[in-house]
Queue: 2 jobs
Job 1
Amino acid sequence: MQRLSLSALLLAMFAVSVGYSVVLPILPFLIERLSGAADSVTLSRHTGLLTGTYVLAIFLFAPFWGKVSDLRARRPVILLGLIGFAITFTLFTLFESLPLLYLGRFLDGVFAAAIAPAVYALVGDHAQSKEWRAYRFTLLNVAATAGFFVGPLLGGLVLRASRDTTFAGADSFLVPFIAASCLALLAALMTWVFVSEAQRRITQAAMTERADKRVIMLRLCGIAFVSTLAIGAFEVGMSLRGKQTLGMDAYQIGMVFAECSIVMFIVQVLVFSPLVKPDFTRWFLTPGLFVLALGLALVPFVTGYIATSIAVALVAASAGILPPVVTYWVSLSAGETEGAELGRLTAAASLGQAVGSAGGGMLFNVSLVGNATFIAAAIVVLSGLGASFSLTRRLVPRQNTAEKCPAVSTGAVTRARRHPHEHA
């Protein structure tokens, strides 16, 4: 894979991450303006549901896009996703009612769902070794993390600047959304010019699936579900806690998410560095879940800046480890159905984030249980520890089939299925 081709894919991941995260610090203020209601219950409910609507669309459409990329090609799926995302994100700025806001956010998710599965699968198609795959997956994860760093800062800074100048009202929300659309269009242009398909081969090993492959995929999807549910609840909970409890403005809330991005960037670089062999990364799953639950449980009970930063850093560190490790092992284990498996993984992660975001908003102001958003998320994460215990033993390191197994034609695979006695 050429450097410009990889750069285009990195920009695609960055653009979609910016598009998702730029809304986080703005959303409570945008809802307040469109709904005309300033009560905390209304803001909490719509903040959670709107965030959940985006990722629910990804849950519904990511398996479809992943399967299409397997059957057709990766590059057209990526292009369609980026162009559609840019168009719908631009339309998002024109909506002046809450129902249309929900529609726009759903359409954003539909097209965003096409990008990550196809991008990861395309990089996997080019993989020459496990180390090669792990390094480039790290770059993709870092690009997404960088987008999550830039997005909230951009949204918070623009909103703060608009309140200090005459550039206010509906126009104050346009700049970050238009910037995200332009990034997506630039990524689409670079993908069209520089990205090419890899020649995918059906290997001898792909003719016979391992008996436990489906169990492995289900457990990995389960870990993705519980971890992203917790992350979604944390994102909404921190936005609401910052505005309603701590009295932060959009810029300060953006800085909290910026801290998360820095920590995620650091741990991703360390975990997938030459210091750690790719096969060893499976042993980070159980500790990552435990640290995530611990951080979530601590967030609502700390008040000082240093203590809050430590709790947020624990959540961010585990959030930086778990998704890329799960994605790596799904890609490595998927075989010829890599796009479909990555689509299912994206769907599971998105469902978790949708449930976490919606639940986080609705639970935030529950009076019977204080700090219900964070505590409930921590309990869900702890429930996923059981799946991780046995999974680390099932993920047995194996040779890269692209290097060690000879390629065979599609016709040979068909003949082998029809006449298995010939290959006994």
Job 2
Amino acid sequence: MTSVDLAGTLKALQGERAQKQTELNKLDRAIAVIRELAGTEASPNGRPQKHTMSAAARRKIAKAQKLRWAKVRAKQKTKS
């Protein structure tokens, strides 16, 4: 009689576990959708998304770097 009770209990617990697993899967999908909408999720292939820079921003950075190097070269000429 005890083995029948254990078998029934085991079956009930396995059913409950399957139900909770389904609920967890639904929650995981909902979390993934919200993260994607918020922009905090990596791309679907697991790699981080690349950030692109506008051409104007690249020009601005390049111009600033050229000015920095010009100052460095000017200091080197005055020391020589």
